[in-house]
């Protein structure tokens, strides 16, 4: 068995406003080490309460920690409330198709 605990804070970029967002990292994983190629029953494979880690030779702990951190990171981090970059001072929005509306219904 391998018990992995990682905690801390990571600055990520918000996908809406591109400002920094602080992500609180909290990983607490218990892995059962198995020799690579070990036979497992179907019930063991379907048991979601257990995590297995096949090991052949030396275990790269740094890579394992990195993988576990990547699994808990959000795919698209964003603030609860934020606007798009540059929208605060953009002023009135201009519709690029406004002039085409005047041509609708006129014969060629």
How many helices? The count is 3
Which regions contain 5 or more consecutive residues with pLDDT less than 50?
Answer: none
> How many domains?
1
Structural class: alpha+beta
Overview of this protein structure:
The chain has one domain. The longest helix has 12 residues. It has 108 residues and is of the alpha+beta class. It is built from three helices and three strands; from the N terminus they run E-E-H-E-H-H.
Keywords:
alpha+beta; 3 helices; elongated; three-stranded mixed beta sheet; 108 residues
Walk me through the topology.
Elements lengths: L1 E12 L6 E16 L6 H5 L4 E5 L5 H12 L25 H4 L7
Parallel strand pairs: 2-3
Antiparallel strand pairs: 1-2
Please sum up the structure shown:
With 108 residues, the protein is an alpha+beta fold. The protein has helices at residues 42-46, 61-72, 98-101, and strands spanning 2-13, 20-35, 51-55. The model has no long low-confidence stretch (mean pLDDT 82).
